[in-house]
Amino acid sequence: MNKITTNFSKSTFHGTEETIAAISTPFGESGIGIVRMSGPCAESIIRQIFRPKNDQSSFISHRFHHGEVIDPSNGRSVDEVLLVLMRAPKTYTREDIVEIHCHGGYLVLQKVLELALVQGARMAQPGEFTKRAFLNGRIDLTQAEAVIDLIKARTKEGIDIANQQLRGWLNKEMVFLKERLINHLSLIEAHIDFPEEEIETIPQSQMKQELIDRVQKLEEWVSTYEEGRVFREGISCAIIGKTNVGKSSLLNVLLKQERAIVTPIPGTTRDIIEEVLNIHGIPVRLIDTAGLRKARDFIEKEGVSRAKERAANADLILLILDGSRELNEDDLEIFFEIKEKKKVVIVNKKDLPQKISLEELRNRFPMEQPVSISALKNEGIEELKKTIYVTLIHREVRISPEHLIVANIRHKMLLSQIKESLSNAVKGFEEEVSFEFIALEIRSALDSLGEMVGETTNEEVLSRIFNQFCIGK
Ligand SMILES: Nc1nc2c(ncn2[C@@H]2O[C@H](COP(=O)(O)OP(=O)(O)OP(=O)(O)O)[C@@H](O)[C@H]2O)c(=O)[nH]1
Ligand SMILES: [Mg+2]
Question: How many domains does the chain have?
Answer without folding.
Answer: 3
